[in-house]
Amino acid sequence: xxxxxxxxxxxxxxxxxxxxxxxxxxxxxxxxxxxxxxxxxxxxxxxxxxxxxxxxxxxxxxxxxxxxxxxxxxxxxxxxxxxxxxxxxxxxxxxxxxxxxxxxxxxxxxxxxxxxxxxxxxxxxxxxxxxxxxxxxxxxxxxxxxxxxxxxxxxxxxxxxxxxxxxxxxxxxxxxxxxxxxxxxxxxxxxxxxxxxxxxxxxxxxxxxxxxxxxxxxx
Length: 219
Prior knowledge:
Strand content: 25-35%
Distance between the termini: 24 Å
Number of helices: 7
CATH superfamily: P-loop containing nucleotide triphosphate hydrolases
Oligomer: single chain
CATH topology: Rossmann fold
Radius of gyration: 17 Å
Order of helices and strands: EEEHEEHEHHHEHEHEE
């Protein structure tokens, strides 16, 4: 589902990623850990096509994002990726339900199908009755759950999560991790989780350590 080969990313004279490789199979869920500043969020941004590598390739479900122009990359990202950002990126002028529904709207899904899927995801994250609420009325933990629902609503081929439990209490964090893992495995998607949380990392099938620009399997 994800094949990363020879990924290099530099910022000035500093090489953050140095020939990095990563394979994630369909239905597999991989956690990436590492020191602050090691390049974990940079790696996620490159996988998502939000940034471009200096060299190397990123293929999602057979589509090489790094080789695409901006328009095609945007369309591919919209259809194939779900991204849970650490800072939520919830749109303040839309209701909770409209935020969750947005990927389906952009993909042209029918209204009835959109409503059914949004209702199911809001229930799954424990916010069934908050669809009409505005984001300003929600707590940080609730906003993170909305971000997760939005990332999963269109059944993406690859789910990327950047510290998705960082703003959650332990019980809610476990709910989010369980939902994330279940959606990835049951749908045959790939999943990549970047986290500082040992509990979150332990929910994955593999734990990889990002160190000196490359990934290694944690023993």
